[in-house]
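User: I'm putting together a teaching handout on how multi-component assemblies are represented. Below are the sequence lines for each component of a complex, exactly as they appear in our records. Could you produce the 3D structure of the whole assembly as structure tokens, so the students can see both representations side by side? Please keep the chain order the same as the input.
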Amino acid sequence: MGSPSHEPDTLKARLRRDLGVNLNHCYQCGKCSAGCPVAEDMDLTSSRAMRLLQMGDPELDRQVMASEGIWLCLTCETCSTRCPQEVEVAQVMDHVRHEALQAGLAHPRSRDIVAFHVAFMDSVRTTGRLYEIGLVADYKARSRHLFKDVTLAPKMYVRGKLPLLPHLIKGRNALKGIFARTLGKGR
Amino acid sequence: MRMGYYPGCSLLGSSREFDESVRAVAAALDLDLVQVPDWNCCGASSAHVLDAKLAAALPARILAQAAEAGLDEVLAPCAACYNRLVSAQQALAKNPAFAEEIAGITGAPAATRVRVLNVLEVLDRLRDTIQARVKTPFGRKVACYYGCLLVRPPRVVAFDRPEDPRSMDLLAEAAGAVPLPWSHKTECCGASFSVTRTDIVAKLSGRVLDAAVKAGAEAVLVACPMCQSNLDMRRPEINAHLGRELDIPVLYITQALGLALDLDPEKLGLHRHMVPAMPARA
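Assistant: Of course. Below is the structure of the complete assembly, with chains in the same order as your input.
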């Protein structure tokens, strides 16, 4: 890395700068992973991710960004709640996901999860509110899981849980502006 | 009492019985709910995964709309909306430079003074009135299921106890129910993985329902649309995962209170559940 007088450009440094999260505070007690409801499904658990990020090594950063584990995080905040050092583990996970997306490192098995979130925000971008039928249709197109839940939708419809038309808010231009200045893909 | 109201998107669709029961109970308790004008989606489970600024800007616009309408307090019944609104507001309050940047994105100053309240917080203020007006006690043994977002992270939402909350139990008691001590009050149901990783939802929601049934509950009470839909709409997947048929109903706390207040079950949206939530009429 660069000269010792410069702060190295690692995830650890960016987390410190952008979120005020100091990964040095983690002493690897493992409580975050112990309470994590999806730890058993993760290739890289939260405590291990914390350890790798702590090293401040760009190669290890990449390893965390390329893991499937960061996409299985439910943001249930059990980790942040129980951390005796008040490290905001769930916030770290969010930030690592953002960087993984920007770097094009999202794990192949997380494709559906990313597709869902993109479809969700696309629905909001155009109407201002989430349009559930649109979300599911968009997600199915993106994920190619065309026939998933085909029996659930009619049951929801007869119970009045699937309005057919989206709710359009008046401030749609304001919303488009917000998207253009954040996700940067305003249409 | 007059209060701002932010229903959030799912209360217009897949969780409309939550909206219906909140409005019905509010009316019965003389609580006047004023909708936040032209509100937008808070970004819920997805914005924060994709972009930190988007995740702050969407709630910031909602709070600015509320402030402009002169609303000091806003009830957000959906636990996810509540959590996102409070999280964004705190992030802005903590970091003036970030707040300025977000104000530039939304075109409105950060509304730091609008107080965001969850449904349990609001009902807690009305607990004595509820108790006094109960006509048909909701006489069932219940497991009060808070989920993640109402109580966590405690440094942000600062509501109730993060590991063993009590507020819903006290409300259930006021409605004549018997709240049980049980293990999974705040374990995650699988949240937004309902569509993408139904296997994980079946496993996590299965653990929650299994614990409620083992504790002797006759109904699960919830205050979050994601918890409700995962435990109710995903019951076939949960049952397949557990290898047995659980028929325990999952009601919103507002539906249980509404029944105790003798409100019309239809107006509380009780007919909309997948797992029948028969009214507790003896």
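A couple of points students might notice: The longest helix of chain B spans residues 52-68. Strands of chain B lie at 2-5, 32-35, 73-75, 115-117, 141-145, 178-179, 219-222, 250-252.
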